[in-house]
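[User]
Um, tokens okay?
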Amino acid sequence: MRSGVRRSRTLLAIAAGLLAGCATPGFDNAPSNTPVTPAFVAQTAAPRDIVGRDVIGLSLSGGGLRAAAFGLGVLQALAGEGGKTADVFDDISFISSVSGGSLVAAYVGLYGREGLQHFRERVLLQDLERDLRLNWFSPANLQRLAAGGLNDRSNLARRLDDEVFRGATFADLARRNKPDVWINATDLYHRIPFPFTPPVFLALCSDLSALPVSEAVAASMAVPLVFAPVVLRTYPEACLTPLPPLQPHLDDPAGVATDTVASVAQAMRDYRDPARVRYLKLADGGLTDNQGLASILVARALSGTPHGPLTEADAVRLRRMLFLIVDVGRAPAGDWVLQPQGPGGLEVGLAAADAAIDSATRLSATAFRDMARRWQQDLVRFRCGLDPERVRALLPPGEPWACDDLRIVVETLSPDALAPASAARLRAMPTRLALTAAQVDEAIAAGRDAARSSRALGRYTDFTTR
């Protein structure tokens, strides 16, 4: 038995070596990010102050076009489409997204309210698998697998750039100012969430504003093996800013969220050390957190202030924040729990991957809710400790002020809010980049229904419209 295992490993090693030694046909995955510039540093340092009195934040989960369609339905409900809910779209100040959710997050970030009208036709009804290589057994694709994945920039990323985002860069995304969109991938080497945000790119000494939005969305959706990792380069020789204080986070790695923060702090140090990291390899954001919450936890911890990542002015103006975790989810599948046989080899691999992803996601959601509770307390203490003159300088004229009048509410919008039959159909939809028009419309309607049934959203609109 052992000799057979050794022979199998030897044959696999030989096959991998032969494939790796072959020239990979048409493989395009060179890093496209550029060194940091003084203009980007100045842009990043300028306070944005995009938060008003009433704020909605969203996280949009992964799950292919099914997740993108569900997220679109939620956004349509927030825009008051159909007249069944109040229009609170302009309160949306922040969106964090993963994988399929990044499609709609980036699109709405670029095109705003108008994007809700044409996202279905221009994105959801397009077969985004049309140009993908999906044959696992052709000789050319075996070579591509050995090089990192079946598909590279020449497939999905280029199509997204040409047809969906039309060459838009992060400078275009920042120009709209609101909402602030964080597109999340996974740093495979450090095994941490990687948000495409200015502070992270300053750690890389790279200019985020020049990067195509399509690169970030492709990285967020880069399911391993189906897609080669998206590659970024570090530019430590071009650095213009110091790293934030990281040692406190490395010295006290206690608790779920803090462990993640410590790992991110170490990665940021590595990004500045060319002997340790020269190239980042990024894959699907769902590998580390399928709800896009972990990067917010990290940003809150690394901010070093009682109000960060909000600005001081944001913290003073804010009265109500509703954070909606939009999670389309995917129920367990397979009939192997009804019989002693199975699961088969492929099913074991998929179930193991799903278990790891779901476990990380649940831990992030729990930590996020705890963070939101503590953040509310920190904000109230900060506000109540401010000098009255400072409050008047930051508060809009005539705005009433009570330092403890602040609430942060977190709620999950998921298929659990739907009728059982609708929820079952939604969860049964494939996690693919191609759906039928009927499936797209059902997922959009499900998102609208989930938002309209939200008690937290109802309370928020009652408060903000009175």
